[in-house]
Design brief:
The protein is 53% helix and 11% strand. The longest helix has 34 residues, at 105-138. By secondary structure, it is an alpha/beta fold. It is built from 16 helices and ten strands. Helix 3 packs antiparallel against helix 4 and helix 9 (271-291) packs across helix 12.
């Protein structure tokens, strides 16, 4: 069954169960706890709709629907228990606490009934649903489109080990790519898809969901280069584990029947925080656009009077997962500023207008990018987006730069705050260190800290 159909089915089940469990709780609360006559009215229907929406939002924040095919029984039990407990407390304070009651025992009974009913009615269909998915995976009737990188004896060994497991672990091998152009020992087992030099194209064309790298984890440079090229996309990366990895505790396994592979953690921000981050992006950007309308008007007039040319400047940049988009800025340079080719700006750049220099100091030229945030191309905080021309130059020196495309680029970034605008590729590499640091430690608290520092830069006019 396809991923989208499974996800939609799972959400529909949760929604129906959430409505049903609230209806049962409401009935028992009226008839058993409060000893009153139960009647279905407008309030009952509104409560069912409102409460089920709250439950779905809680499940969404947990990341339950991120990829339902990767759920397993113990995880769904944990998710259901935590969401039921957390949601019960929210609904208690929102809807039940201000009710008129005979004594406080009614509160305790209501809490117990609400948690028990919701947990039981939610967990039962969920465990059947997840068990169905797990069974299909174990029977090798469903899995993740997997690419094996390497064509040596080690790659053959990993392939044979996975195929000989008593239960499938979800790897639907599409083919393999080799690393040195010679080793193709897997040709009689898997389709040969090409050389690792064309890895990005192969991943995209074959819709790869999981990659297994058949290299020793001690080959740090080669591994780092490969991982950097893959991490920009939504692909799980696994590496064969050696004895050092096992003893050091690096191996993370979710399946006791699995092969000795460890997963490279490429997603440091929890799914729940990612959802909250996107909600805040849209909410705060919408507010900023409304509040800044007079300011936009003033800046537009200033830009128009400063020199010939349009008020806004649009340029193609590379966004999340390498997808190009058109960034929007107030124009700060004279027209035809790049008639000789792509160039980075500098402090004393003669191409920058006087009003442009002022706007750059205060970051005013970036304000139209709130529209990019609403369109989903950017975030408030994230690595600054670059042009493909400069990315190609940077990657030749430091392949890890591609990791920055795994998230939405931002209006402001840790690198922008600490380093400012880059004037050449070397400075881009220096700024990249701060953005990589952000990427490996990103969370909402760090985002708020970066936004605060950005505001201070604007107030102090210390933008570089």
């Amino acid at each position: 069954m396809k991923k989208n159909i499974l996800t939609t089915s799972f959400i529909l089940i949760d929604w129906l169960v959430s409505m049903f469990s609230w209806g049962i709780f409401f009935y028992l609360r009226k008839t058993v706890i409060e000893k009153e006559v139960f009647s279905i009215n407008k309030t009952f229907y509104l409560g069912v709709i409102f409460v089920s929406a709250i439950w779905l939002f809680i499940y969404l924040l947990q990341g339950t629907y991120h990829d339902v095919r990767r759920l397993y029984r113990l995880k769904i039990f944990s998710l259901t228990f935590i969401s039921s407990l957390f949601g019960t407390m929210i609904l208690f304070f929102l809807l039940l606490l201000d009710d008129e009651i005979a004594n406080y025992k009614v509160y305790y009974k209501s809490l117990f009934y609400l948690f028990s009913i919701h947990f039981i009615f939610l967990f039962l269909p969920r465990i059947f649903f997840v068990s169905y998915i797990v069974r299909k995976i174990h029977q090798n009737k469903s899995g993740f489109r997997t690419l094996l990188i390497g064509g040596s004896e080690k790659a053959v060994s990993i392939y044979n080990e996975i195929k000989s497991l008593p239960k499938g672990i979800g790897n639907d091998f599409i083919g393999f790519v080799n690393l040195n152009g010679i080793d193709k020992l897997l040709e009689n087992k898997l389709p040969y898809l090409g050389h690792a030099d064309n890895l990005e194209k192969i991943l995209q064309e074959n819709q790869i969901e999981e990659v297994i790298i058949a290299l020793e984890s001690t080959e740090h440079e080669r591994l780092r280069a490969l991982i950097s090229r893959i991490e920009g996309g939504n692909v799980k990366i696994k590496i064969s584990a050696d004895m050092y990895d096992i003893l050091s505790g690096s191996v993370k396994m979710n399946n006791i029947f699995g092969a000795l592979l460890f997963e490279v953690n490429t997603d440091e921000m929890p799914v729940g925080q990612q959802i909250v981050k996107r909600i805040l992006d849209v909410f705060l950007s919408a507010i900023a656009i409304v509040l800044l309308i007079p300011f936009y008007t003033f800046l537009a007039i200033a830009v128009k009077l400063s020199s010939k040319g349009p008020v806004l400047f649009r340029q193609e940049r590379i966004g999340i997962h390498g997808k190009p988009f058109r960034i929007i800025k107030f124009r700060t340079m004279y027209i035809d500023a790049e008639k000789t080719g792509p160039q980075l700006s500098s402090i004393n750049d003669p191409r920058i207008t006087k009003i442009g220099l002022f706007m750059r100091k205060l970051r005013f030229d970036e304000f139209p990018q709130f529209f990019n945030v609403l369109l989903g191309d950017m975030s408030l905080v994230g690595p600054r987006p670059e042009r493909q021309f400069f990315i190609d130059q940077i990657v030749k020196v430091e392949p890890q730069f591609l990791q920055l495309t795994k998230v939405r680029p931002g209006i402001t970034s840790w690198g922008q705050v600490k380093y400012g605008y880059a004037e050449n590729v070397d400075q881009m590499l220096q700024r990249m260190k701060f953005d990589l640091l952000y990427l490996k430690n990103r969370n909402l608290a760090l985002d708020f800290k970066i936004m605060l520092y950005t505001i201070l830069i604007i107030v102090k006019a210390k933008g570089k």
